[in-house]
Write a structure and sequence with these properties.
The chain is mainly α and about 140 residues long. The protein has one domain. Helix content is about 65%, strand content about 0%. Helix 3 packs antiparallel against helix 4. The N terminus is likely disordered.
Length: about 140
């Protein structure tokens, strides 16, 4: 019984610590697209996400936009290999994540505090109510 209780406490501590803000180094930003998970966090720091995005693409090439290459469809294979399909799917996924980041970046900009934290939805609602009351 004690072992089960101890195991349960350990699992709780591990899951509780996953929700906390993590600090990353520039090497972490360069290796993997951490900015994707940062922008999904409601307590994200705007400046950290922006830095992670910039550092990642200093070391990785951005995928070309859809139909950016002239003649792209003419040179596509009729039956691409599994490896080629996976590569195309990864590029499509990265394009979508870049679009999500750019939209998040533009939408959150007005709500960024001086320290990089973003106003919570409750704070944004209060500002809206205050502005509505003054009109």
């Amino acid at each position: 019984m004690k072992f089960g209780y101890l195991t349960l406490c350990l699992v709780f501590v591990v899951f509780a610590s996953n929700g906390q803000n993590k600090t990353y180094s520039d090497k972490d930003f360069a290796r993997s697209p951490i900015w994707i998970s940062i922008i999904k966090d409601t307590a994200a720091n705007y400046f950290v996400a922006e830095r992670a995005f910039k550092i990642y693409f200093e070391h990785h090439a951005k995928p070309a936009g859809e139909n950016d290459e002239i003649g792209e469809h003419a040179k596509s294979e009729k039956y691409p290999s599994k490896k080629e399909k996976r590569k195309l799917q990864d590029q499509d996924n990265m394009r979508m994540e870049i679009k999500k980041y750019e939209r998040w970046h533009d939408r959150m900009f007005p709500y960024v505090k001086a320290d990089g934290t973003i106003l919570t939805p409750t704070e944004r609602l209060q500002i809206w109510r205050d502005n509505k009351a003054t009109k």
